[in-house]
Design brief:
Blueprint (H helix, E strand, L loop, with lengths): L5 E11 L38 H13 L3 E2 L2 E2 L2 E4 L9 E4 L6 E10 L2 E14 L3 E5 L3 E5 L6 E7 L6 H18 L11 E10 L9 E6 L2 H20 L7 E6 L4 E7 L9 E2 L6 E2 L2 H9 L5 H12 L3 H7 L3 H11 L5 H19 L16 H12 L5 H13 L4 H7 L8 H14 L1 H8 L5 H12 L6 H14 L1
Parallel strand pairs: 12-13
Antiparallel strand pairs: 1-10, 1-11, 2-6, 3-16, 4-5, 4-15, 6-7, 7-10, 8-9, 11-12, 13-14
Helix pairs in contact: 2-3, 5-6, 7-9, 8-9, 9-10, 12-14, 12-15, 14-15
The structure holds adenosine-5'-diphosphate, magnesium ion and zinc ion.
Zinc ion binds next to loops.
Length: 483
């Protein structure tokens, strides 16, 4: 809220479905191949080529709709959306307009302000366009591998009221869709892309005119684009200007949005039913069979973790946000003495080291980012939780496991990393440090208690970082008191 204005946001999210082949031809649906190697007359839009619908797209789209609490229609149909752009060789996109597959769904998010329900207006199926490759020297080239990749577009109700809620919505959407197995939802590879519609108003007044920011490809840019556009609209309205309906581009570097083009109306697309494709029909039996394929979803697992492992609601939400991570945690928790300690280790130090290792700053993680077996991590968690290795040594062992996975107990043995709690060894370290730093002892005695930390650091270093910190601290304070 700024100067009494509230932001109103609706998201349009495009998700590439994880099918083997494309939506209307038998070309492979693959990411990262040599340009224009997975193409044929149908997806290149050559005259006379006819589309044949891939039924797996229908199954996945219907499952996505069911997982998102939508009404999935028995009958739906494809329409042509006509527009000209170089990445669209047919000059129309096969989409759904008059009769989308799914309508009236919702999802629930946990935000810092509590639980919130966000409505889903509709989910429809469509084909992706190609990719333009801009090169300063050689001009613009077209890669048509992405033409005809199956998409679902998920349109939310304008229920979102903050950048935080928008990001929570996207995270939850990604969790639900990856659990359902219909997409890998990788924002950095473009398999989940988001358009943000944003307007401002004063609560109680009608909604304002919205602008649309297209193709945001990270959670961070969604958040930044929302904040920048909200500021801009508030400033404009306060200056007596009107907000015009248009498409805007968010520039990551400047952190500002700029006008791209005035928004087309749906009339400009001249939608009409695609005569090349028959109506789509799902029987009651189809619906039942698809519903049975949907695995337990993140909310259900979240509740179970709270009951079964006593982890907090917040930790459980984070652990279930990605299916690979939830599976990983469950395998580890089955072995760990304290699942809560394992959860803390994963969400704390493991995440910190994953972020540090993410040199491309994509923020994307999957099972390959965590090359440590859950059994080994559970063992490390137990060693740390019982104090057999202290937390800083535990972090070092974790770093070593990232380099080469092995049994952390054996590793600690071979490298002599177990916690030192032998009073003779600890006292020797303390005496040595106190003798070497008489001035520090003097200032501690004169009331400068912060010196304790420096002395602790030195004593800890004497034990090569392996001391039981509580015990070392007690011995240190006792020795100073005796001086
Ligand atoms: P279009 O085809 O014009 O993009 P859609 O119906 O596909 O329209 O999507 C409109 C999106 O804009 C939806 O997500 C909807 O929630 C959102 N929206 C509609 N009105 C407003 C508004 N006043 N402020 C913010 N978002 C809005
Ligand atoms: Mg739209
Ligand atoms: Zn093809």
């Amino acid at each position: 809220m700024k100067l009494g204005y509230e932001m109103v946001i609706g998201l349009e999210t495009h998700v590439e479905l994880h099918t083997r082949s494309k939506i209307f031809c038998s070309c492979l649906n693959a990411f990262g191949a040599e340009p224009n190697t997975y193409v044929c007359p149908v997806c290149m839009g050559l005259p006379g080529a006819l589309p044949v619908f891939n039924e797996q797209v229908l199954r996945y789209a219907a499952m996505a709709g069911m997982a998102l609490n939508c009404h999935v229609h028995h009958r739906s149909r494809f329409d042509r959306k006509n527009y000209f752009y170089p990445d669209l060789p047919k000059a129309y996109q096969i989409s759904q307009f008059y009769r989308p597959l799914c309508e009236n769904g919702f999802l629930i998010v946990q935000t810092s302000g509590g639980e919130k329900r966000i409505g889903i207006t509709r989910i429809h199926m469509e084909e992706d366009a190609g990719k333009l490759l801009h090169d300063e020297k050689n001009g613009t080239a077209l890669d048509m591998n992405r033409c005809g990749v199956p998409l679902i577009e998920i349109v939310s109700e304008p229920d979102i009221r903050s950048a935080e809620e928008a990001v929570c919505y996207l995270r939850k959407l990604r969790a639900i869709l990856t659990y359902t197995g219909v997409s890998d939802c990788k924002m950095n590879e473009g398999s989940l892309r988001c358009d943000v519609n944003l307007s401002i108003h004063k609560p109680g007044e009608p909604f304002g005119t919205r602008t649309e920011m297209k193709n945001l490809n990270s959670f961070q840019s969604v958040e930044k684009a929302i904040e920048a556009e909200f500021e801009r609209q508030v400033a404009a309205v306060e200056a007596g200007e009107t907000v015009v309906q248009e498409t805007r581009r968010f520039d990551q570097k400047s952190g500002k949005t700029t006008s791209m083009r005035r928004k087309e109306n749906s009339a400009d697309y001249r939608y009409f039913p695609d005569p090349d494709l028959p109506e789509i029909y799902l029987t009651d039996e189809d619906m039942t069979a698809l519903r049975e394929k949907i695995p337990p979803l993140p909310d259900e697992r979240r509740e179970r973790y709270m009951k079964e492992y006593s982890v907090s609601a917040y930790a459980a939400e984070l652990l279930t946000a990605e299916r690979w991570l939830a599976d990983y945690f469950e395998r580890g928790a089955a072995k760990a003495e304290s699942p809560v300690a394992l959860a803390n280790l994963i969400l704390g130090e493991v995440f910190a080291q994953l972020t540090a290792r993410d040199t491309q700053h994509t923020g994307e993680r999957d099972e390959s980012s965590l090359p440590i077996s859950p059994e080994h991590l559970a063992k490390l968690s137990d060693l740390m939780n019982s104090g057999k290795v202290n937390s800083s040594t535990g972090k070092k062992i974790l770093g070593a496991l990232f380099q080469e996975d092995c049994d952390p107990e054996r590793y600690a043995q071979e490298h002599e990393l177990f916690t030192v709690s032998d009073d003779r060894v600890l006292n020797a370290a303390v005496e040595k440090v106190l003798a070497a730093n008489p001035d520090m002892v003097v200032s501690y005695k004169a009331g400068k208690l912060t010196v304790e930390k420096a002395l602790m650091g030195k004593a800890m270093a004497e034990t090569k970082g392996k001391a039981d910190p509580e015990r070392l601290r007690r011995l240190l304070l006792d020795s100073i008191a005796r001086l």
